Amino acid sequence: MHQKFKLKFLGNIYELKGEDPDVDLQEVASYVENKAREIEEKHANLPPTRLMVLIAMSLGRDYMVLKKRLTTLEKKLNIEVQRLSKKIK
Hints:
The chain is an alpha+beta fold. It is 66% helix and 16% strand. It contains two helices and two strands, in the order E-E-H-H. It has helices spanning 25-42, 48-88; strands spanning 3-9, 12-18. The protein has a two-stranded antiparallel sheet. Strand 1 (3-9) and strand 2 (12-18) form a beta hairpin. The protein is elongated and about 60 Å long. 3% of the residues are buried.
């Protein structure tokens, strides 16, 4: 099922639709809007293209941090599962 949502990005409103059963795309749009607003407020004098690069880098950084945290948690979980499995045997 398609999700319709609006994204306000650097003063423009985009009406979008997408299909992803794993996430709420409106929630993604809200996250992007907040990140864009945060960076735009800090760097109001930059041209839009430069702002977009900073926003993309910030979103990419957030992704990489979360990906690293997930990998760390998965490793810890696997170690704990192995430890508990040994106790059960």
